[in-house]
Write a structure and sequence with these properties.
two-stranded antiparallel sheet, globular, 6 helices, nine-stranded mixed beta sheet, 26% helix, Dihydrofolate Reductase, subunit A, alpha/beta
Length: 206
């Protein structure tokens, strides 16, 4: 049985998931947006940041998201930002399909992450990711423009937002340009934690 197609992001209270410029991705605002994530024990172990870290529901959600993911899809902008920021052992440990307009040979990293570059559209990338994932889920990892393409194409089954109590005022809005006439949402869950509120929705065609 095929798994779900989902995305999972952190979002500010005013609807932004990232700064406009790639150069600002490690800036103060982005770090504030993700401050719930970095102390988690599972993330620290996955990124080899050292021993220790927090345990609890936030940590469980990070681990569960990782464990359900059999393959990921991302846009070229996200890949370009991560290529130099990820450690040598990239944190996915599964196949990753990069939607791009160019051509590039696959890129293998230690620990099981293999990047495949797909230049014939988002549906082709998803088909390849589904095949690679088997009965596990496919995560649309980002960035915002790539997520929106999949939402508007009716290809997302479910998504989760870690709603963070920060304000950006500007940046990349998660749902900027969404086809609201097509997309309907069904609440699945809401879990508050000390730092964020985790919201999960099923996506239905309106």
């Amino acid at each position: 049985m095929a798994g779900k197609v989902f995305f999972s992001v952190s979002m500010s209270l005013d609807g932004f998931i990232a700064p406009e410029s790639i150069e600002d991705l490690m800036g103060r605002q982005w770090m504030e947006l993700q401050q719930w994530l970095f102390p988690q024990r599972f993330l620290r172990e996955n990124l080899k940041l050292g021993e220790g870290g927090e345990e609890g529901r936030d940590n469980d959600i990070v681990r569960e998201t990782f464990e359900r993911t059999g393959a990921s899809v991302m846009g070229k902008r996200m890949f370009d930002a991560g290529e130099h920021a990820w450690p040598e052992e990239a944190p996915f440990h599964t196949p990753v399909f990069v939607v791009t307009h160019g051509q590039r040979d696959r890129w293998e990293r230690p620990g099981g992450t293999v990047f495949h570059f797909v230049n014939d559209g988002i549906e082709s990338a998803l088909d390849q990711a589904r095949e690679a994932a088997g009965d596990r889920d496919v995560r649309i990892a980002g960035g915002g423009a790539t997520i929106l393409q999949y939402v508007n194409a009716g290809l997302i089954d479910e998504f989760s937002i870690a709603l963070s109590p920060v304000l950006f005022g500007t940046g990349v809005r998660l749902f900027e340009g969404v086809d609201a006439d097509r997309v309907a949402l069904e609440p699945v869950g809401a879990e508050p934690s000390p730092r964020v509120t985790h919201l999960t929705y099923a996506v239905r065609e309106r």
